[in-house]
Structures are given as structure tokens and as C-alpha cells.
Specification:
mainly beta; 2 helices
Amino acid sequence: YVICNLNKGKCMIKFLRLDKIIYLIFISVTFAQADTSFKEIEINGFKIKNPQIVFKDKNSKIAAAYFEIENQNNFDDRLLSVDGDISKNIQIHNTIMQNGIMKMFKVDDGIELKKNSNFKFEKGKYHIMIMDIVNGVQKTNNYLHLNFERSKKIKINFETISFVQKLKSGH
């Protein structure tokens, strides 16, 4: 998890066996915001908006995924997990503020998606954390599988954008 004291402008990460380089990559990726370009996919009663993976560079071992999901089904569902070929360690995370300190943690019980409702994975809140990336981030064909309680598995191609590209674009 990550602990940030906003009053002092300091952050610290608590992971076993992570060095300072991975710490810097992680902080850069976690606080990056998804690009403003727009993509919309409708599949199995869900509308997926702007699915993106944000990373530091093509050799990053850590990245974050952001998107908005609308459950257009006539039933509630639950996003249980996310997986993909990019990594064997993909988790749903949330970030909260407690006493002026930002804390990030794994969400073990999934995300409830009420029928006819939206849910947004975004920086500083719920997001998909991709760790231990196997062969670097690819420019295309970054498929993640969204695993649901009722709707089962949905395969989505996520666009990629580097943190450097985001800074240059000014978004």
C-alpha cells in the first residue's frame, strides 16, 4: 500500500522487496490520469468507456488501468477480478484519504454494479493495478479480461498511454 502525507508533501510505499526505482515508477503511474481521447465498447450488456492503461515507459513493471463501466443489464452484477496476458498479478485497488494520508489497498470482494448504473475507475480512487508486467507494455493488443459474477468474462482491448505522453499532451 501507499501512504502519502499531503500536509508534508511526502509519500512512502510499503511493499516487500521493492526498490526505489519501482517506487518511483509506481508513484508516477498511480497519480497519472487517463487520457481525454474517447473510446466506447458495448458488450454483454455493458458499455465500457475509454479503457486505458497508463505506464511510465515500455519496460515498466507496474501500470494502472482506468475506464468507466455502465451496467445496461436488467440485473445487478459484480466485477470480481481482472486478468490478462500482460501480468499474472492484476488487482482491483482503491485509494482513500485517512487523516490527511492517502492509502491504497486491494479490493478483495469486487465491485458491485447495480443494473442501469455507472462506475468509474479513475486516478486517486478505484483503479486496476497491474504489477509484475511480463514483457513490457505493448503499443497495441493489451487485452484485459473483466471477470463478473453473473456475466462471466469480457475481453477488452485497452489503449496504452505513457506518463510522458500525458505530460506532453497537457491533459
